[in-house]
């Protein structure tokens, strides 16, 4: 575990400074390197007690590593731990099971926490850039795989209601390469990927970059392996480590992006939506309580 983990920034930072730390700081650093899956769930008090040091020492230790606070350090450690956990590991995480565990309360509380964290930290300039790309690109390709295909489909289907030229691709389908190869110049390729990051989406990210398309990556972790290929990325982090994933924040962002496109009042929007509604009516696609039998 230690050898593999040393490539990660949070662990690498501890290893790099280990020799310059105080004796108590070295105890903290060594404990975290050897026990990241335990440390990530600890408060400052719990970590200090586990290492036999004071809470003040923990705070100074985190500051020496360059983090703005213990919460910021835990988020970085959480991203590392999340990227390496298997399904059995996740099932054994605290709060996932056990007598007396209020799972409904836990799920709702964690989703609310994730939404609050995102709302407080969101960079509106990045969102504005994304909206501009969604509005101006000649064509948009939404790609997801496994659980993230749900988000890609939801975003793609929603975008078809406000503009033309939207394509939804399944990352596990090899024809996605054909679609990207034949896509118009300056198309926007949007890859939505969540932990644990299917390899096919990494390959498609590389392909989109090679084909000189604009690549937007929406993900849940700063360590997402598709981000290095992106022109623009939006990270929607969670404070807890999920069994499968946390859908609320990504869904919320998709809703916002679509609504923002509507609010820009593109003159093509009304024509596009009227055309859609006419086709729905002519082909009896949607239930209409006012239509005679």
Automatic annotation (TrEMBL):
Q: Which PROSITE patterns match?
A: HTH_RPIR
GO BP annotations of the record are: carbohydrate derivative metabolic process
Whether Thylakoid counts among this entry's keywords is no
Which Gene3D superfamilies does the entry mention? Glucose-6-phosphate isomerase like protein, domain 1, Winged helix-like DNA-binding domain superfamily/Winged helix DNA-binding domain
- Molecular-function GO term, any one: carbohydrate derivative binding
Could you list this entry's UniProt keywords, alphabetically sorted: DNA-binding, Transcription, Transcription regulation
HTH rpiR-type domain ranges (all copies)? 8-84
Question: A Pfam family matched by this chain, by name?
Answer: HTH_6
Protein name (database record): RpiR family transcriptional regulator
InterPro entries cross-referenced by the UniProt entry: Homeodomain-like_sf, HTH_RpiR, RpiR-like, RpiR-like_SIS, SIS_dom, SIS_dom_sf, WH-like_DNA-bd_sf
Per its UniProt record, what PANTHER family does this chain match? GLUCOKINASE, RPIR-FAMILY TRANSCRIPTIONAL REGULATOR
């Amino acid at each position: 575990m230690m050898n593999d983990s040393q490539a990660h920034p949070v662990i690498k930072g501890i290893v790099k400074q280990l020799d310059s730390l105080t004796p108590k700081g070295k105890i903290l650093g060594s404990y975290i390197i050897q026990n990241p899956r335990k440390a990530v769930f600890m408060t400052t008090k719990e970590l200090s007690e586990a290492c036999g040091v004071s809470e003040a020492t923990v705070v100074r230790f985190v500051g020496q590593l360059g983090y703005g606070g213990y919460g910021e350090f835990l988020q970085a450690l959480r991203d590392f731990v999340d990227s390496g956990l298997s399904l059995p590991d996740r099932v054994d995480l605290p709060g996932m099971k056990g007598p007396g565990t209020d799972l409904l309360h836990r799920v709702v509380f964690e989703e609310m926490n994730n939404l609050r964290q995102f709302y407080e930290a969101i960079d509106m300039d990045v969102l504005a850039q994304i909206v501009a790309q969604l509005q101006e690109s000649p064509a948009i390709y939404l790609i997801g795989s496994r659980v993230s295909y749900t988000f890609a489909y939801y975003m793609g289907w929603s975008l078809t209601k406000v503009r033309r030229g939207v394509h939804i691709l399944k990352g596990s389908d090899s024809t996605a390469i054909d679609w990207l190869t034949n896509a118009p110049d300056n198309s926007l390729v949007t890859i939505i990927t969540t932990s644990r990051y299917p390899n096919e989406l990494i390959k498609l990210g590389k392909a989109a970059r090679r084909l000189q398309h604009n690549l937007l990556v929406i993900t849940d972790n700063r360590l997402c392996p598709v981000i290095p290929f992106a022109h623009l990325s939006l990270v929607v982090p969670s404070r807890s480590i999920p069994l499968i994933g946390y859908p609320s924040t990504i869904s919320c962002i998709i809703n916002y992006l679509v609504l923002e496109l509507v609010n820009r009042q593109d003159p093509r929007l009304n024509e596009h939506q009227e055309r859609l509604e006419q086709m729905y009516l002519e082909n009896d696609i949607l239930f209409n309580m006012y239509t005679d039998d």
